[in-house]
Design brief:
Blueprint lengths: L10 E2 L7 E7 L4 H4 L3 H16 L4 E4 L3 H10 L5 E4 L8 H4 L2 E5 L5 E7 L2 H4 L6 H16 L2 E8 L6 E2 L4 E5 H4 L10 H12 L3 E5 L16 E5 L2 E6 L8 H11 L11 E6 L20 E2 L3 E6 L5 H8 L7 E6 L1 H4 L5 H4 L1 E4 L3
Parallel strand pairs: 2-3, 3-4, 6-7, 9-10, 12-13, 15-16
Antiparallel strand pairs: 1-5, 2-17, 5-6, 8-9, 11-12, 14-15
Length: 347
């Protein structure tokens, strides 16, 4: 008899708004990847970790003793625990496990998927082992259960409402560089069984120059049951003008697992945000991290930064919404949601 899937075993991935036990991150460390931006990236990262750690504990990966000492100094007095687990880069949303809660018992499981470097684009040493190593630690430390899957899935590719609905994109999950032997029906079935979902909602494509091939966490986020935020361009020269319009139109036609039409919450797009070489970056205000008491929104020095904060704040009346600069982190390909991985509280 085949092993039970998480769904059939009573597990499902909760909404990010549900209570967290901790947040997993990895300290930016590799000069060969970040170059001259490393120090500035570390400053942005330290600000983010400090903002998270006042609301929930942080589990932080460090690759060596020198970085461990830097982290210990930066986070002195905060609930930050260091783990000497090697990693390729800091994108913990994708290289760490996903987590599921049991629907009726105080149990949490780690979900580990195959890893292929975002479609073989960035195969960095150790990234393929981070999920397994974190899972092994949690099994020994907290008695977590574990489910392992042979197909590719990155955490940033899926967004759930905690009530059986999952949003994703065809550009990413149906890309032949991920799971070429699985069609849309097979991927949908895999998502429902692995994540404990009842309905999969498909958007078509993501932002321009997105290294991840259209991860959902930069284009659409559940902010409450039946409510999803997406970005709206404020200028016709926005590099994502067409795509953002199509995303909003698609979301406005969708219903969630309960059959309720989605309420779409518009957030302004940051518009054109360029890297140090003058290339368009996939900047998104939706790449925020929802912590226990805060929502931390990435800012880029755009004239839309404050407008975005004002649009997002009413979505989270029980949390403090703050903005922190993330432009140097973004030069690596993502922002705050991409580098965080929330571990749900047991029960």
């Amino acid at each position: 008899m085949p092993p039970l899937s998480p769904r059939r075993a009573g597990f499902s991935v909760p909404a990010e708004t549900m209570p967290h036990q901790a947040c997993w991150l990895a300290f930016p460390s590799h000069g060969d990847l970040w170059g001259e931006a490393l120090a500035a990236t570390q400053r942005e990262f330290i600000s983010l970790v400090r903002a998270i750690a006042v609301t929930e504990p942080v589990e932080l990966l460090v690759p060596n003793d020198a970085i461990a000492q830097m982290a210990a100094t930066a986070f002195a007095g905060l609930p930050v625990r260091l783990h000497h687990i090697p990693f390729g880069d800091i994108w913990m949303r994708d290289i760490a496990p996903l987590f599921a809660q049991h629907r009726s018992e105080p149990r949490v499981a780690a979900l580990t998927f195959a890893w292929n470097g975002w479609g073989h684009k960035y195969l960095l040493d150790h990234d393929d082992l981070v999920s397994e190593r974190v899972t092994n630690f949690l099994q020994e430390d907290q008695g977590f259960e574990a489910f392992r899957f042979p197909w590719v899935l990155e955490g940033g590719a899926v967004e759930v409402d905690g009530q059986g609905t999952c949003l994703t994109t065809r550009q990413c999950l149906l890309n032949p560089n991920r799971n070429p032997t699985m069609d849309e029906a097979a991927i949908a079935t895999g998502l429902m069984e692995a994540l404990g979902m009842e309905k999969i909602l498909w958007l078509d494509e993501g932002l321009a120059n997105d290294h991840t091939d259209g991860h959902i966490d930069t284009i659409a986020r559940f902010v409450a049951p039946h409510r999803v935020a997406c970005m709206t361009p404020t200028r016709s020269d926005d590099p994502n003008f067409r795509v953002l319009g199509e995303i909003q139109r698609q979301l406005e036609t969708m219903t969630d697992a309960s059959g309720t039409p989605l309420k779409v919450v518009p957030v302004p797009s940051p518009g054109t945000v360029l890297d140090s070489d003058g290339q368009i970056m996939p900047a998104s205000y939706l790449n925020f991290y929802i912590a226990n008491g805060r929502v931390i929104v990435p800012l880029y020095g755009s004239d839309q930064d404050e407008h975005a904060l004002r649009a997002i704040a009413p979505c989270f009346p029980d949390r403090q919404v703050i903005g922190l600069m993330a432009k140097h982190i973004l030069q690596g390909g993502g922002a705050f949601h991409c580098i965080t991985c929330h571990q749900p509280a047991v029960g």
